[in-house]
Amino acid sequence: MAQLTRNEILKRLQAGESCSGVNLANLDLSNESLSGIDLSATDLSGADLSNSDLTDANLNDANLNGANLSGAILHRTYLVGSNLTDANLEAANLRGAFLSGSLLCGTNFKSADLHRATLGCPKCEVPGPFGSLTSFENANLEEAIFGEIKLKGTILLGANLKNAYLYEVDLSETVYRATDLEGAITKKGRN
């Protein structure tokens, strides 16, 4: 399929049409209002979505390998099963986002807001160890749900994990301080 242009995507959005499964690799969609757009199973590898509004968007099974989503608003966005390898989500708003089953390898969530976000899956393991670190440094993970995941090669330094649900989470290969887990809810109870 031929790659769509920025204008074609915006016209589809205005018409309420789906953009599911299209090729948007390396496309610049920065600073755009894309709220509610269907980009499921779309190739967005290398795309620039920085500072874009993707509130309530569907990015399930999207390829966001190397995409720039820094400063983007992904409030309640669906990213289930998405490839976020080497994606930049620094300072992004992912409040209430669904990232279950997403591939997180070298993903940058520094200073991102993941309040009440859902991450993890029973058979998902963050690749690593320590080859491509996934960073949640200084991220807001308050009330986030990390379900059944091994956070291998992950940095949680300075993250806010107050009331975060970490049941069945393996932190054995995670970089954090004991104080970073204060207020988190684990298998043992509240820390």
Note down, in words, how this protein is organized:
Strands 1-2-4 form a three-stranded parallel β-sheet, with no helix packed on it. A three-stranded parallel β-sheet has the order 3-6-8, with no helix packed on it. The protein is mostly loops. It is 5% helix and 10% strand. It has one helix and ten strands, in the order H-E-E-E-E-E-E-E-E-E-E.
Mean pLDDT, rounded to whole units? 89
What is the 3D shape?
Answer: elongated
Helix content: under 10%
Largest sheet: 3 strands, parallel
Q: Strand tally, please?
A: 10
Low-confidence stretches: none
Summarize the helix and strand pattern as letters.
HEEEEEEEEEE
Write a brief structural summary.
This protein has one helix at 6-14; strands at 98-99, 118-119, 134-135, 145-146, 149-150, 154-155, 169-170, 174-175, 185-186, 189-190.
